[in-house]
């Protein structure tokens, strides 16, 4: 190895040694801090175990979070210089908060996307006008595409859902059992069998409830579980779907009776999306066609793909191969408005929470200035032994960088733990406010790496001016103070 290479390595070792000596605590902390640390760890462990065991009280995970922060503070106090411990604790707190927020907002985005694609597939093919009758040929043709897992025709209509009760029972029925406006959707269970996401939404785990009607049985229907609870109906009960009369411009259109059909409730739907669970009804495609249109046509075809990311390209291929009356939309286009709003909220919240790291960085500046004042003698001694001002600069720059790295590692570990705690607790959300019934969590690679990079970068930047001030400490004044 060349002399220049050995010199660089020795300088790096010296910088690391001096920075770590300045960063770590020189005197032993009091025994009280150790007792508090053990106590906080014990409380954290008990609260976490209780949460994992299913204790539903919100106070339990809150206690776990507070106790873990106390434990973190004690670790910083026992291992780091008091001047730096506060800054590292603040940086860890900011990193943990930002990681947790990113995990929750990512969870909202992922859960909303998954639940919506389960109901509507990855690509939706519709046709302008009222004559989509060529759906069997199109479904069969595109089902042979290697990208396609399932192609399911569907019929769609808005309808009123009314419980069917005996006349005497209906007279004594309690309030809240009146008709509900629902989204009625007819699907072919055989064609939709390949859509694993749709089957997972059914309480029974299959689509057998969507049977067609015959001379022996009423057609089957599946309702959102919240809708069934509102109407106070259970599997085995009968309900009627009522569609308004068609207004075709003729004089007798106003007096024409609405179309209706009676179904037997055979299954419940649990999508996790409040809007769907409170207003969705699934029936067999043939029953839906007869009731909605009185003819063999559909509203569209849903395609489930092997790779959801292929949806835009597949939708483009569909439109390119069909007449202009057809339109294909990917799941990204269908949920773009909701996802864009969620991403904007995610950005604003992340920016606000990220200010905690900036506040912690200002505390680091104050800590480093105090450290320079206390270590003037050591700085002057290094300079008198031949150390260059550049070496002193890199020592204090390394202190700031190490403080950022330690704070980032502790914060990311805490944030990931808090995200797991939230996922285990499944904090319920208000049905009338949020589209999902619990607080979702999804922790991605960048949700962990982003806050850590931001913490280290901020610490490295704010340490620069302080390192310059340390490099300019007068040797004689430093030796006098030492």
Provide a descriptive summary of the structure in words:
It contains 18 helices and 9 strands. The protein is 58% helix and 14% strand. About 2% of the residues have low confidence. Helix 1 crosses helix 16 and helix 15 crosses helix 18. The longest helix is centred in the first third of the chain and has 39 residues. Strands 2-3-7-4-6-5 form a 6-stranded mixed beta barrel.
Tell me the layout of helices and strands:
Blueprint: H1 3-23, H2 31-52, H3 59-79, H4 82-120, E1 123-127, H5 135-143, E2 148-164, H6 167-171, E3 180-187, H7 189-192, H8 196-201, E4 220-224, H9 225-231, E5 238-243, E6 259-269, H10 274-277, E7 280-284, H11 285-292, E8 300-305, H12 311-321, E9 326-330, H13 331-334, H14 336-374, H15 376-384, H16 389-425, H17 445-471, H18 475-481
Parallel strand pairs: 3-7, 4-6
Antiparallel strand pairs: 1-8, 1-9, 2-3, 2-5, 2-8, 4-7, 5-6
Helix pairs in contact: 1-16, 2-3, 3-4, 3-16, 4-14, 4-16, 4-17, 14-17, 15-18, 16-17
Please estimate the helix content: 55-70%
* Count of alpha and pi helical runs: 18
The termini sit apart by: 38 Å
- Class per helix and strand makeup: alpha+beta
Overall geometric form: elongated
Number of strands: 9
């Amino acid at each position: 190895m060349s002399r220049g290479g050995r010199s660089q390595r020795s300088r790096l070792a010296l910088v690391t040694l001096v920075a770590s000596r300045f960063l770590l605590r020189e005197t032993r902390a009091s025994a009280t801090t150790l007792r508090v640390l053990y106590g906080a760890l014990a409380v954290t462990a008990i609260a976490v175990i209780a949460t994992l065991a299913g204790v539903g009280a919100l106070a339990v995970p809150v206690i776990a979070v507070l106790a873990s922060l106390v434990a973190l503070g004690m670790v910083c106090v026992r291992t780091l210089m008091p001047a730096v411990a506060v800054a590292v604790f603040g940086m860890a707190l900011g990193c943990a908060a930002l990681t947790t927020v990113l995990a929750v907002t990512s969870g909202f985005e992922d859960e909303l996307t998954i639940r919506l694609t389960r109901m509507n597939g990855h690509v939706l093919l519709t046709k302008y006008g009222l004559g989509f009758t060529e759906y069997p040929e199109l479904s069969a043709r595109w089902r042979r595409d290697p990208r396609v897992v399932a192609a399911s025709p569907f019929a769609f209509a808005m309808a009123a859902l009314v419980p069917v009760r005996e006349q005497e029972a209906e007279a004594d029925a309690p309030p809240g059992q009146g008709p509900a406006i629902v989204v009625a959707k007819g699907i072919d269970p055989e064609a939709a069998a390949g859509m694993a996401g749709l089957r997972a939404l059914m309480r029974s785990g299959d689509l057998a409830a969507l049977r067609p009607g015959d001379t022996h049985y009423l057609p089957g229907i599946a309702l959102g579980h919240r809708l069934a609870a509102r109407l106070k109906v259970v599997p085995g009960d009968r309900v009627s779907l009522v569609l308004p009369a068609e207004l075709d411009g003729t004089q007798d259109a106003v007096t024409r009776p609405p179309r209706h059909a009676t179904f037997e409730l055979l299954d419940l739907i649990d999508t996790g999306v409040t809007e769907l669970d409170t207003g969705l009804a699934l029936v067999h495609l043939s029953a839906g066609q007869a009731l909605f249109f009185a003819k063999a046509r559909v509203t569209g075809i849903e395609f489930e793909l092997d790779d959801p990311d292929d949806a835009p390209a597949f939708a483009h291929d569909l439109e390119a191969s069909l007449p202009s009356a057809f339109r294909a939309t990917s799941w990204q286009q269908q949920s773009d408005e909701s996802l864009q709003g969620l991403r904007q909220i995610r950005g604003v919240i992340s920016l606000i929470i990220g200010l905690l790291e900036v506040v912690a960085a200002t505390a680091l500046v104050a800590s480093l200035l105090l450290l320079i004042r206390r270590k003037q003698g050591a700085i002057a001694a290094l300079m008198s032994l031949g150390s260059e001002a550049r070496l002193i600069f890199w020592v204090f720059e390394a202190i700031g960088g190490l403080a950022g790295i330690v704070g980032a590692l502790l914060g990311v570990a805490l944030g990931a733990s808090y995200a797991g705690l939230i996922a285990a607790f499944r904090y319920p959300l208000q049905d009338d406010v949020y589209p999902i019934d619990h607080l979702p969590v999804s922790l991605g690679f960048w949700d962990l790496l982003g806050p850590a990079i931001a913490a280290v970068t901020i610490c490295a930047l704010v340490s620069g001016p302080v390192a310059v001030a340390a490099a300019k400490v007068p040797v004689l004044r430093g030796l006098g103070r030492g």
